[in-house]
Amino acid sequence: MRHTLAEVIEIDLQAQPPRLQSVELQALYRREGEVTRRMASRQGLWVAVAVYLLFAATDILLVPDVAFYAILARLAVGATAIAAIETLFRLDAETKWFDLTCAGALVAGYWGWLFPSLMTSQTESISYYMIFGAIFMMGANLFFSFHFRLSVATSGIVLATFFLALIFYIPKSVSYQVAFGTFYVSCFVFTSYVN
């Protein structure tokens, strides 16, 4: 059987080029951005730790009786986080490990600041100082580029810890609890949405 040139060209022109599926495109996008995300996570954690340590000045001003312990916790969390991220960087680890390390550092940083600070006798100061915990939720959702589930899980741990502290350690009026609780929930919802 003989084909004319016109038949061959017609058949080739009608063939559709293969297209990548949505899942394949997402995987390609993630692979292409791995190196950039690892560098951004590394640099972001260094900046986050520096800012976290600078808040030691606020510890001294607002909770001076427990500032030593809060600052010690800040130093321990910061040093551990930096050591972990640098080890991952040198091992050329997968991006998911960088993300998990940064998420763990956020939660550990929140706990490292909150729990020593709650032991203060400066009850009025700590009742206002607790507003800064929202920064940790913002960090999980806005500062780092975590996948949505990791971001929500990290922020959710901070939110749950805040409510436990609010209920058991800061027994203020119901209006105080509603106002601060609403702020934290709003912060959680809005920053999760942005993520």
Automatic annotation (TrEMBL):
TM stretches of this protein: 44-62, 68-85, 97-114, 126-144, 151-170, 176-194
Organism in which the protein naturally occurs: Rhizobium meliloti (strain 1021) (Ensifer meliloti)
Lineage of producing organism: Bacteria, Pseudomonadati, Pseudomonadota, Alphaproteobacteria, Hyphomicrobiales
Protein name: Hypothetical transmembrane protein
Record keywords: Membrane, Transmembrane, Transmembrane helix
Lineage top rank: taxon: Bacteria
